[in-house]
């Protein structure tokens, strides 16, 4: 069978698989995309995090060490991690249950590597240079299956902010992926399929995301990029639905056209409703941009649910994402991130150290 016929057959089979996944949206009301099939630990035991300790009874680390648990929080604030945290399969992390001003971790990686069926909502993960292992990421879900991350905030990732190499059926939605240090990369996805929906990507060198899989990329906002949506020359044969996204140049953007980066003819792309604002003039006034490198143009989406998800124009997505992305309520770090985006080209920087933000607590902010 030819490569082209093999690719078409794969796309057809994947469409059937993803249609079944979309019918079984069990994660929570409003869950979308390929990760929505996850049920987490919703039918299991409820476990409460009662302190901000790194480990021990009542700690976050202890809570996530068991499977089939639904985790809630009776405490708010930062949990400083002194070593990476490995999640178990079949868990739900309900950060929205924490008292104001919310809950989060900093200092080390959180890993779902090799695990399955995980839901994380309203949670902050900020690695930063307190982690001496520069090969780690803020969140790692390599070789994981059925994962949904919703209204989360990922900052200061060292290797990647979100690492999903080998991951199957994932959704990242309504989240902030910002200010990576180290490699200065947003997200790396391989295998898939994956859904990136209504996220805010801010001040990364590249990989927003690096998509080596079949991807839905819908109503995202990318600001102050050097390269944004990327497939890379060694990606293989994949399909991409890129709909209603807004790419906004900032002070670190050297070529606004690199919103689509390394998209070769072996990539199949359906692109519509996307805009690029390249003039850095403090006003949202971009122009339509739907020519995605030298990729092969699809006349219709590869995923049957993509058009149904794309309910916002790019301009409407900007307004929505600015108001809603990230963990709630917004803390100092996310407020800083959003304020740079709202400058619409006049502020923002790609950084190597979270302290350069000037925020309290060595740049991690006070939670």
From TrEMBL:
Superkingdom of origin organism: Eukaryota
Molecular function via GO: lyase activity; metal ion binding
InterPro entries assigned: Pectin_lyas_fold, Pectin_lyase_fold/virulence, Polysaccharide_Lyase_1
Keywords: Glycoprotein, Lyase, Metal-binding
Keyword Electron transport: no
Matching PANTHER family: PECTATE LYASE C-RELATED
Protein name: Polysaccharide lyase family 1 protein
Naturally occurring in which organism (per UniProt): Hyaloscypha variabilis (strain UAMH 11265 / GT02V1 / F)
